[in-house]
Amino acid sequence: MQNENKLGVMPISKLIWNMSLPIIISMLVQALYNVVDSFFVAQLSEQALTAVSLAFPAQNLMIGLATGTAVGVNALMGRSLGAGNRDRANQVAIHGILLALFGFLFSAVLALLFARVFFASQTTIEYIIENGTQYLLICCVGSVGLFCQVMFERLLQGTGRSVLSMYTQGIGAIINIALDPICIFTLNMGVSGAAAATIIGQIVAACVGLWMNRKKNTDIDLQLRGFRPNWRMIGQIYSIALPSVLMVAIGSVMTFCMNKILITYHSAKETAATAFGIYFKLNSFIFMPIFGLNNGVVPIVAYNYGAQKRRRMTEAIKLSTIYASIIMILGMILFLTIPELLLKIFDATDTMLAVGAPALRIISISFSMAGACIALGSSFQALGKATYSMIVSLVRQLIFLVPLAYLLARYGQVVGNDHLVWWSYPLAEIASMFVTMFFFRRMYRKLIAPIPLEPSQQ
Questions:
Q1: CA nearest 8: which of 311, 317, 378, 383?
Q2: Under 8 Å between Cβ of 268 and 274
Q3: Side-chain-side CA neighbours of residue 65 (13 Å)
Q4: In the prediction, which pLDDT does 457 show?
Q5: End-to-end CA distance of the chain, in Å?
């Protein structure tokens, strides 16, 4: 028992925070970077901030490819370790690094071909198109650091070394924050300086992550000697990862569509799209802890599923759902009470405050339901049912949210109420909650309930 991985023996409540807290801290540092990055860009002009905001869907799609692939690697590796198959876990890890490099090449080629077209499809303002294109090109062409950083972090998390993962992400974000004012103002690089600071931080973090996996991670051995790609294993990784990637892609499509709807039908046009972008920067302080919690819980559930420990699995899912709901409710209270103060971080004009404050208040109502949905979604990923998460995301962000936003924006234009468009978020979250509960009950009956219930003493 003493030699068993802590994922299988540590008390669940303690284990969740032991695994999640370092990730949450590093993700909060990352969220701080996002806000600081936009804070400095906002000092240039509102149009500069709009350029970065409109880049978000494409940038998020790239991040989603990196994190989604890592989710597949993490879950498959966790199940292999739980079943005691370290050789297979090691092969999964090496394949993960290979897939990270392919992801970088794919993102760089797409950016080189379509970055300017992407911005021109959203606005006709040349300053926004030029600066946004430069920003996105630098982020994507230099994304080797992002893809490798994310993969190395997940390898550390998947073997229970979340503290080391915190160091890698924290180091990258701190370097990023420190370089932002230097690159943007001292070197007079403008919006491109923000992108340059980003990729430098990511490359340093990736190097640190590689070193930690080679020197500190004794559960896997990243030796490439004699390595041959196993296409069946790659297929297994992406059977878990692809729904996660598509889930982020759905979010990127949603953001793109929302920007188009706001620019077309909202009276404030680009200012409304910028306010929407600021919302995503601010909500990262609420959602990043939830995602950090989920990243900590996925290997717990995956490992104990591999070890056939039903009681530990169900306790992990239950407690993570409770913790996520509490965090989201606190976030909702924050957005409801001080939205103006939050917007002023970005040097908001009176027009921005008039648009953004109601938006933050109305959208935050959806937080009360989102926490439980996201937490239960982590169990889908851990047990190889990431397709369920993808369907839930599809329901929330495309099937309900975008059509509702379009209809409410059109109706709001007729009656002179621009704030109606933001109610699409709480309404879509209600639908998401019902779909999530349906899939969770189905998964529980098929995968968890058949496992014999072991004694409560672990």
A1: 311
A2: no
A3: 22
A4: 47
A5: 10
Give 450: exposed, middle or buried? Use CB within 10 Å, 0-12, 13-18, 19+.
exposed
Q: Tokens 């284990």 map to which residue?
A: 15
Give the helix/strand (H/E) hosting 197: helix 191-215
Buried b (16+ CB within 10 A) or exposed e, 248-258: bbbbbbbbbbb
- pTM more than 0.90: no
> DSSP alpha helices (H): ranges in 216-366?
231-265, 270-306, 310-337, 339-344, 350-364
Q: Is the dihedral of CA 299, 303, 306, 308 positive or negative?
A: negative
Residue 111: other Cβ atoms inside 10 A: 23
Q: Report the distance separating Cα 18 and Cα 395, nearest Å.
A: 33
pLDDT tens digits along 33-62: 778 888 899 999 989 999 999 998 999 899
Look at residue 1 in the predicted model and tell me its pLDDT. Answer: 41
Specify the residue for token string 């992801």: 103
CA–CA gap between residue 246 and residue 64 (Å, rounded)? 8
Residue 317: closest CA among 267, 255, 385, 400: 385
Closest CA to 218 of 317, 128, 89: 89
What would you measure as the largest C-alpha separation in the chain, in angstroms? 68
User: Which of 123, 127, 115, 122 has the alpha carbon at shortest distance from 47?
Assistant: 127
**3 pLDDT higher than 80:** no
Q: Are 35 and 190 in contact (CB under 8 A)?
A: no
Q: Is the pLDDT of residue 429 over 80?
A: yes
Please give the radius of gyration of the chain, using alpha carbons only, rounded to the nearest integer. 22
Q: What is the pLDDT of residues 178-209, one digit of tens each?
A: 999 999 999 999 999 999 999 999 999 999 99
Q: What is the pLDDT of residues 243-300, one digit of tens each?
A: 778 877 888 999 999 999 999 998 888 899 999 999 988 998 899 889 888 888 888 8
Mean pLDDT for the stretch of residues 99-112: 96
List the structure tokens of 284: 């990262």
